[in-house]
Design a protein that fits this description.
Mean pLDDT: 86
Strand content: 5-15%
Shape: elongated
Radius of gyration: 36 Å
Distance between the termini: 108 Å
Length: 980
């Protein structure tokens, strides 16, 4: 038996003199060698002394926790000493080894753990051998660790899948449509370091479980658990295989917190729901995280398809400074909460650490990835190299930052190799610090100080690059951020000295104005969209220099509203008329009509096409007035109801003009254009257009009516054909895009029989339909129906018919049907959860208020005819209260709740350009929305958000209480009448 003294002159003993703790390492090495077969030991010490020394340095010096497994199986030590460490092991060879290791074993899970620790030991030995892996090549270690994880996770899933299929069968379901079968795919998608193929030594693996979405309804009689339940069980079994701990160790700690909705979300999600989440709900940091998404186990082809479906939501076409800001703020919060603090250093989180390198790469990827596809790489180091290649980073900086990244990752791995512990903070004790320094290659009495100096230099370089990117992104304000927008948006104007000076002066003006705007990040984002839209049209930049008073007004718009900024960016010729008079109030309807006529009439002597003039002028009128209303609304110079009424006025004038234009276009085709039968036609506004509650970006709900009869009193078919063509022209005039965009989308689905009915309906046919076929909801819809253009006589006839229909008694079954429809909409459309509310169709939402009003209108129209006059909901609530049909407390609760929800919807649309009606408690920008609604956070971060949510709950609870009271009272009254 050898002694430590006997081995002192051997190669391995000399090598271990440089180990972090030489004497314990030598003792451990001697014990392991003594456990070997003497012949094997003799062969290794004689034939492969350098390799044996490197092996023992790795598993006894740097990562001594491996020794326990090597004691149990000394043959592993001999195998490790026979490995070739010159190159990383190819994936194909690693897969072959894994197949061999699993062949015929009774316990595959245990075999997977044994395989992991052998291969991890091999990778560790190689990484700790400077002659094999220099710092420049240490990325090979990260790639090998990731490759090992890929294979182990894939085989673990196969083990789990067999167990689930033995109990429930394969993932095949019967189709409800044709009785056939449908197989659904399943994939494990990695994020974080595994997704980026840069897994560290003792890292969690961040995963998302995704399964295929059925192509249609599945057979409800199928005995198999539904897909969500089936794949959840598969995910649970997979987690057990991967995370099981035994005396041999474990495979990986699985972290599912990056899945949609985090810990509150379902453990498994289908592909459609995943794409929807990233399109509508994902926070900016979640989108940044998905840049590293990569399928690692299961149906990989399906997984890549899922990743590609999400990518358009990640890499946006415009610079998103708010997203970059969000990542930075999250990084800063983690540093504050989990960093080492004081004079310590957390390699991952602290200033100058790994996260700052990753931020530099991710920020520039998010900002430029849409237009430069090669930046969409999952690897931080690859991203840095690509940034240099496309000119977004100096090559020297990219190389230096890439080397510093590898240095920090090696430092992180050395910290974790000692005991396979998930640690990132440098040790504070002198002995532990000295041990780490030696593991990093420093020796002598001054090893720890050398390490400290090396780390400090690395941190300074990384943080300098980090701060430089912040400035380049405009996150720290100043002219540079605006100049960066100009440099990317109009490089041709930045190329020459004269135009560059112009742009620099304009950048200074914008910078000052943006700094004082309501939301500088939004202002920069919208400025970026504006610059991209107008491109190199120098006129507009010169205009803003010639009239500098326009810049702060434009910057104010950019900081206040994404929706309105989009209109101005698409139509820059609006800049002067919109901002000529910042105190401009809402024009009267007569003034609006005059402006519309001025824009749509061809000037005398003009050679421009009159049709183009008419269509473009109509659109410019719509855009200009929408922005004008929005500016007054955002400045709180008008009430939300005034904004809705003004938008309704604009829409009605546009419909009137479209009808006039359509008649002019068809006039030449009529034998007798002055025949009065061509005039009996009307456009009837429905819904919000009728009640004058139109919101920003709303479609127009309309129906088209005519009243033309032949000598026999039947429908005049020639007139009907004319009115069909007239209607088509009206729709085309309003919604067909031109160079100036479009005015409105037209929705005519509320006509009799919906999309199955004729586009234009005669008044008699409308009457017959509502006497025989109309459903209860169609009767409700008539409460908000008002002619907005066309023949006045037909309008009066329609209104009389409407009142006749609505004046019919409301039966008990009708009330129950209204309630049933409302419940169904809440169940099928709102899909509310504890953290996500739908303020339109959800509990206590807009439809609760509208349903209360409509039921009371229908119940009491006979004794209170004024209730049938079309008016905004707020006005109707007052009428019901005045008539004694709502007690004061109920009227106040409903009116206050309605005002709250209306303002919330308006702000979501005009500020964020969100047409959705969902309020997600976890939305990343909810605090900003709350502040824009007037809430504040004195002394406590997030207080504005909490106050908004508290008010939301209070208002919707009060509304639902009134809704329940109404239908309970109606039900009680109905039962009493039935008893009598």
């Amino acid at each position: 038996m050898s002694t430590i003294d006997d081995s002192a002159t051997s190669a391995w003993s000399r090598r271990l003199a440089d180990a972090p703790d030489p004497e314990p390492a030598r003792k451990l090495a001697s014990e392991l060698l003594d456990a070997l077969d003497p012949a094997a030991r003799q062969r290794l010490e004689t034939d492969r002394p350098d390799v044996l020394a490197a092996v023992l340095f790795g598993v006894c010096g740097v990562a001594p926790f491996f020794a326990a497994g090597l004691r149990r199986d000394p043959e592993r030590l001999a195998r490790l000493a026979d490995e070739d460490y010159a190159q990383p092991l190819p994936r194909s060879e690693l897969a072959r080894r894994l197949d061999a290791a699993l062949a015929g074993v009774p316990d595959e899970a245990a075999a997977l753990r044994r395989f992991k620790y052998y291969e991890l030991a091999r990778i560790t030995i190689r990484d700790c051998w400077p002659e094999a892996v220099s710092l420049e090549r240490s990325g090979e270690t990260l790639a090998e660790i990731s490759q090992l994880a890929d294979l182990l996770l894939q085989r673990s899933l196969e083990v789990a899948r067999r167990g689930v299929e033995e109990r429930y069968g394969p993932p095949v379901w019967k189709s409800g449509a044709d009785g056939g079968e449908e197989r659904l795919d399943f994939c494990v998608i990695a994020l974080g370091k595994l997704g980026g193929e840069a897994l560290n030594f003792s890292s969690d693996v961040d995963l998302i479980y995704v399964h295929g979405a059925p192509s249609g309804d599945l057979d409800p009689d199928d005995t198999k658990p539904p897909p969500a339940e089936y794949f959840t069980r598969l995910g649970q079994r997979f987690g057990s295989v991967v995370g099981e701990l035994s005396h041999e160790g474990f495979l990986y700690r699985i972290d599912l917190d990056l899945r949609p909705s985090g810990a509150q979300g379902a453990p498994v999600i289908n592909e459609d729901a995943l794409a929807t989440y990233y399109e509508e709900w994902a926070d900016t940091w979640e989108k940044a995280t998905f840049t590293k998404a990569r399928p690692v186990a299961g149906d990989l082809e399906f997984g890549w398809r899922v990743v590609r479906q999400v990518h358009p939501m990640i890499y946006l076409s415009s610079m998103d400074i708010a997203a970059v800001r969000s990542i930075r703020e999250l990084k800063d919060k983690f540093e504050a909460a989990h960093g080492a603090g004081g004079d310590g250093f957390d390699v991952k989180l602290d200033t100058g650490g790994i996260r700052e390198v990753e931020f530099v790469a991710q920020a520039l990827q998010l900002m430029h990835g849409a237009r430069i596809p090669q930046l969409r790489t999952r690897s931080t180091r690859d991203a840095l190299q690509q940034l240099a290649q496309v000119g977004l980073m100096e090559p020297e900086r990219a190389d230096r930052l890439g080397r510093d990244y590898l240095y920090l990752r090696r430092l992180e791995n050395r910290l974790q190799m000692e005991g396979e512990r998930q640690v990132h903070a440098l040790p504070r004790s002198p002995d532990a610090r000295r041990r780490l320094a030696r593991a990093m290659g420093h020796h002598g009495e001054d090893a720890a100080s050398e390490l400290d100096r090396e780390i400090e230099a690395c941190r300074e370089r990384v943080h300098e690059a980090y701060e430089s990117v912040l400035a380049g992104c405009g996150l720290d304000g100043g002219v540079e951020g605006v100049l960066d927008i100009f440099a990317r948006g109009v490089p041709q104007l930045m190329r020459f000295p004269a135009s560059r000076r112009m742009m620099e002066e304009l950048a200074a003006n914008f910078s000052r104005s943006i700094e004082g705007s309501a939301d500088p990040e939004r202002a920069l984002n919208n400025l970026d969209r504006f610059v991209k839209a107008i491109g190199g049209r120098r006129f507009y930049y010169e205009l803003l220099l010639d009239r500098p008073e326009l810049v702060p007004r434009l910057a104010g718009l950019f900081g206040a509203s994404k929706y309105l900024s989009g209109i101005v960016a698409g139509h820059p010729r609006l800049i002067e008329p919109i901002f000529d008079d910042p105190e401009r109030l809402l024009p009267e309807r007569g003034a609006l009509r005059e402006e519309l006529q001025g824009l749509t009439r061809l000037p005398e002597g003009s050679e421009r096409d009159p049709v183009d003039t008419r269509l473009d002028g109509l659109r410019l009128f719509h855009h200009r007035q929408t922005v004008n209303v929005g500016l007054l609304d955002l400045a709180d110079l008008i009430e939300p109801a005034q904004a809705q009424a003004a938008l309704s006025d604009v829409a009605e004038l546009c419909v009137e003009d479209a009808l006039d234009f359509a008649r002019e276009q068809l006039r030449s085709r009529l034998d007798d254009p002055d025949d009065p039968r061509w005039t009996r036609y009307a456009v009837v506004g429905m819904g919000k257009l009728a009640s004058r509650e139109l919101s920003y970006g709303s479609d127009l709900d309309v129906i088209f009516l005519f009243d033309a009869k032949d000598a026999d009193g039947q429908v005049d078919l020639e007139a009907q054909d004319y009115f069909v063509r007239l209607t088509q022209r009206v729709i085309s005039t309003l919604q067909t895009p031109t160079t100036e965009g479009a005015c409105y989308e037209i929705d005519a689905r509320l006509r009799p029989s919906g999309n199955q009915g004729t586009l234009v309906t005669s008044l008699d046919a409308f009457r017959r339909y509502h006497e025989s076929s109309a459903q209860m909801w169609e009767r409700q819809a008539l409460l908000r129906a008002r002619p907005v253009a066309g023949d006045e006589g037909l309008a009066e006839a329609f209104d009389a018919l409407r009142r006749e229909i609505l004046g019919r008694p409301l039966a008990a079954d009708d009330v129950r049907e209204i309630h049933r429809i409302r419940e169904r909409m809440e169940l099928e459309l709102a899909k509310e959860t504890r953290l996500r509310r739908n303020f339109k169709t959800g509990r206590g939402g807009v439809l609760d208020v509208e349903t209360i009003v409509q039921v009371l209108q229908l119940l009491h129209a006979a004794e209170h005819p004024a209730l049938l006059e079309v008016a905004p909901t707020e006005v109707q609530l007052s009428r019901l209260a005045d008539a004694g049909l709502l007690d004061p407390d109920a009227a106040r609760a409903l009116s206050e709740g309605w005002s709250f929800l209306s303002r919330l919807a308006s702000r979501l649309r005009v500020v964020d350009n969100r047409s959705i009606s969902d309020l997600d408690h976890e939305r990343g920008d909810l605090e900003g929305l709350a502040r824009r609604l007037g809430y504040s956070s004195p002394g406590r971060e997030g207080q504005a958000r909490r106050s908004l949510l508290a008010d939301y709950e209070a208002h919707t609870d009060a509304i639902r209480d009134q809704y329940s009271r109404l239908f309970e009272s109606i039900g009680a009254e109905t039962d009493a009448n039935a008893a009598d």
